[in-house]
């Protein structure tokens, strides 16, 4: 198993995993912000994954995207693999609303993160029902 980059470990909460990817929650209650991290060594870009892994990442991203939009009723879903600060391949999934504090700008680096309180995190995870996604293990 590949290690999750220390910056992601510091900024996120590990929720579980799919067949290929770990699922993280960015510890910022300002936005529903989730990150898929493929469990592969020394991969920084999607094209470096095998074709099978590329397909699997797309499947997992699609499952996650569908669940996030159904759960949070976002006005927009931003998906990005930026990796300027964290070289390990990771795919952000951020639900956006026209009234969120960064709209219409990107969320990265815009404001300091607002950490989830335990009760907020519990409510979010209950609402999300991750166990409903095929192939996901908490």
Give a quick rundown of the structure:
Helices cover 28% and strands 21% of the residues. The chain has 138 residues and is an alpha+beta fold.
Walk me through the structure.
The chain has 138 residues and is of the alpha+beta class. The protein has a single domain (6-126), classed as HIT-like (HIT family, subunit A). The protein has 3 helices and 5 strands. It has helices at 6-11, 51-72, 118-128; strands at 12-17, 21-26, 33-38, 76-80, 91-96. A hairpin with a 6-residue loop joins strand 2 (21-26) and strand 3. The radius of gyration is 14 Å and the shape is globular.
Keyphrases for this structure?
single chain, 138 residues, alpha+beta, HIT family, subunit A, five-stranded antiparallel sheet, 3 helices, 5 strands, globular
Secondary-structure element string? HEEEHEEH
* CATH-defined topology: HIT family, subunit A
| Computed CA radius of gyration, to the nearest angstrom | 14 Å
Look at the structure and give the mean pLDDT.
Answer: 95
Helix coverage percent: 25-40%
Low-confidence stretches: none
Supply the helix-strand structural class. alpha+beta
* The first-level CATH class name: Alpha Beta
Write the layout of secondary structure elements.
Blueprint: H1 6-11, E1 12-17, E2 21-26, E3 33-38, H2 51-72, E4 76-80, E5 91-96, H3 118-128
Antiparallel strand pairs: 1-2, 2-3, 3-5, 4-5
